[in-house]
Amino acid sequence: MSHATGQKYLKQDSLPLMWCSGCGNGVVLGALLRAFEEMGFKKNETVVVTGIGCWGKADDYITTNALHTTHGRALPFATGIKAANPRLNVVVLMGDGDSVTIGGNHFVHAARRNIDLTAIVVNNYNYGMTGGQFSATTPKDSYTSTTAYGNPERDLDICALADVAGANYVARSTVYHGYDLQNHIKEAIARKGFSVVEAVSPCPTHFGRNNKMKVSVEMLKWLKEKGVSREKYLQLESPEQKGYFVIGKLVDRDAPDFSACYEKIRVRALVV
Amino acid sequence: MKDRYEIILAGSGGQGLIVCGMMLGEAAILEGKNVVQTQSYGIASRGGFSKAEVIIDKEEIIYQQVIKPDMVLALTEEAMEIYASGYSDIPVFYDTTLLEAREGDNLYGFPFTEMARNLGHTGTANMIALGAMSAVTGLVKVASLESVIKKRFSGKVADMNIMALCSGVDLIAK
Amino acid sequence: MQREAKLIQGNQAIAEGAIYAGARFFAGYPITPSSEIAEECSRVMPRIGGVYMQMEDEIASMGAIVGASLTGAKSFTATSGPGFSLMQENLGFAVMAEVPCVVVNVQRSGPSTGLATKPAQSDIMQVRWGRHGDQAVIALSPSSVMECFTLTVEAFNLAERFRVPVILAADEIVAHMRENFTLPAPGEVKVFDRKKPSVNPDSYKPFEPGEDGIAPLAAYGSEYVFHVTSSMHGPEGFSNNSPANAAWKVAQLHKKIERYRDEIVITKTFDVEDMDVLLIAFGAVTRAARAAALEARKEGIKAGVLQLVTVWPFPDREIAELGKKAKTVVVPEMNYSGQVAGEVTRVLGPATDIRRVNKYNGQIITPGDILEEIKRGAKEVL
């Protein structure tokens, strides 16, 4: 079998990609479209739902059904789609702003509801599209265009949030680890219930430039070095201070998803 | 029997006045009448002020609120004060278990709550009151209220409510 | 079969109207005084193959009904003041993306939490202008339990026909009032379903208007594949930032409604043939106005009532026609600023004697409140 290219899901006439050189979004897009191909998804049975932000522009390059929504609200729109037609494959593309900052409440409740959506969250630690302001995932003390003297706030762990809120599948990868990323996306899509793949990605234009990693290669090196397995992470001394993070599969559950639970309610409603 | 009745049922939240108003309205609909039932209430589900209004008319009911009541049921002193104290020409029903007894030709004071307790459930006090109110005024037929009770409840609960209704009617017949 | 008359609440009639119209998806967040709609839907939807979703807030509720509608389901939500404010952004999305859906706003006292259980008619301008960006909107306002039903069906019909969100601007009075109600038999009230594309899937453009000015709407999961965006877009549904395209799109959002204005606008009149005093009312206050007009006639003042069943598009022409026959016009409404009276003044001009009756304390406008102003008007003008 030849390797999937994902080409048939790529909207060729929208190229070139609008993202900055060195941005990781193209890598995540490629991984997603190859995953679609490997899973044999039909365009008319697949809906890609996006929010607002750099990664939220990804729908412009995808040939399946798509819904480009409002900032932070992609999950509620996707929830409506999936609940109304559970046969559809619904994939939600959000950045760190969409998913856990402005849309944090929806993220928590989509996971709690365990609705069968796959959230592909590109985390570049800042708001790239609006000029590199800090988000809920921006590390403490780092510099952005609204934290000129360092970030006074603590950052939020997207995967830990998804875990405690009840997601069935959670994995973290980076655009440096492209092949793993693609496999996690496939596993996440295949899993019933709410699943999350966090793709840590460089924003050399803003976050990198503001934090002494002007060139994308420096950021990729940083991802390579700081993204470690859980085993290695546990061996590290005070890993949080050193900026390390765990990559790999973090949550693997099989709780019934919303639609399965709602079907049971329908049966009960008819009996009552 | 009049063509139009405007009724106020007032007391506090949790006394079942709104359900009482609904059942009265449903009984009137069974008799082919037009009904509007409205309510005013506070933000608390229990306690606090509560009032149900019912208008029953052979014709279309245009304005939905009671302007001048044809009868009042008061289940708290406050309700009595606000809705009944100004009237001497309309029947006013009140619960002597909960309110001070008072004198007046238009006043019908009965221990609705105590009677209901003796029947086995204080929640049936409203049904006793509805029975008495219908018997005095011919507001709706007792049979219509009975049908409504049977539609809403079943088994022992229905029986208890019908018993309550009849004991209310008997208060007047005596 | 003789259909049975029941005593039901306005909110329940709204839920029954939605289901009669074919709604099979409700997403909402409970809020007084609209919660009974959610409760009814939670009971009925699972029994009829529909979905009830209680979302985490009204922002999510509005997003979910848009998503559901794009799969072909007729969808709606119900809320009140604070929740309606939260819905505005995604309501604007439904306008921009031309997604049929119905939003019930049971108006209550404000601003902010206000008097949470008390009625108001103070969201009329928010209904019209609450979202950023320029757009046309359709809104209806019921005055009885039966109208709660019929106007909900009509709201779905208009939404489906014109690919727009339609707002049912109810108020706490009609929402909580109980009246006689007989559920119409299936087919007795007209139900309209959205126009679907018939072209080859390769040539489908989700935002290209047909000859009737409306673009057919496919469903996610059908043989059609399509792209929908909140950004300015061309007929193909992809972002298009050209000035010419933006001008076309914004105009299209208005024109598809303007073109059918006469079919959309509904008004009712009561005793206007010989009137000197014209009362213009909407929602539950229509009833107080009608009662006041009858009282006025008993006192020798010829009063009549124009009920604005459709509040947006504003019934300019109907008001202008009757307004020129009236010697004085009285506009009662449950707000301070005279949101509808201001529009009436815009239509009839400053030379017309227009009188306002406003109540904004959570209490209902009574026939007596209106009669007082009728008499004052009669004394000063007639």
TrEMBL record, chain A:
Example GO biological process: cellular respiration
Domain Thiamine pyrophosphate enzyme TPP-binding residues, every copy: 58-198
Oxidoreductase among keywords: yes
GO molecular function list: oxidoreductase activity, acting on the aldehyde or oxo group of donors, iron-sulfur protein as acceptor; thiamine pyrophosphate binding
Keyword set, alphabetical order: Oxidoreductase
Superkingdom, taxonomy of origin: Bacteria
Pfam families in the cross-refs: TPP_enzyme_C
PANTHER family listed in its UniProt record: 2-OXOGLUTARATE OXIDOREDUCTASE SUBUNIT KORB-RELATED, 2-OXOGLUTARATE SYNTHASE SUBUNIT KORB
Protein name: 2-oxoglutarate oxidoreductase beta subunit
TrEMBL record, chain B:
The keyword Oxidoreductase is assigned to this record: yes
Keywords: Oxidoreductase
UniProt KW Cell division keyword: no
Gene3D superfamilies according to UniProt: Pyruvate-ferredoxin oxidoreductase, PFOR, domain III
GO MF, one annotated term: oxidoreductase activity, acting on the aldehyde or oxo group of donors
Domain Pyruvate/ketoisovalerate oxidoreductase catalytic, first and last residues per copy: 13-169
InterPro entries (UniProt xref): 2-oxoglutarate_synth_KorC, Pyrv/ketoisovalerate_OxRed_cat, Pyrv_flavodox_OxRed_cen
Domain of life of the organism encoding this protein: Bacteria
Name of the protein described by the UniProt record: 2-oxoglutarate oxidoreductase gamma subunit
UniProtKB/TrEMBL annotation, chain C:
Domain Pyruvate:ferredoxin oxidoreductase core, residue spans: 276-370
A Pfam family this chain is assigned to: POR_N
Keyword terms: Oxidoreductase
Ranges where the Pyruvate flavodoxin/ferredoxin oxidoreductase pyrimidine binding domain occurs: 16-210
GO molecular function: oxidoreductase activity
GO biological process, one term: response to oxidative stress
PANTHER family registered for this protein in UniProt: 2-OXOGLUTARATE SYNTHASE SUBUNIT KORA, PYRUVATE-FLAVODOXIN OXIDOREDUCTASE-RELATED
Name assigned to this protein: 2-oxoglutarate oxidoreductase alpha subunit
Species of provenance: Desulfocucumis palustris
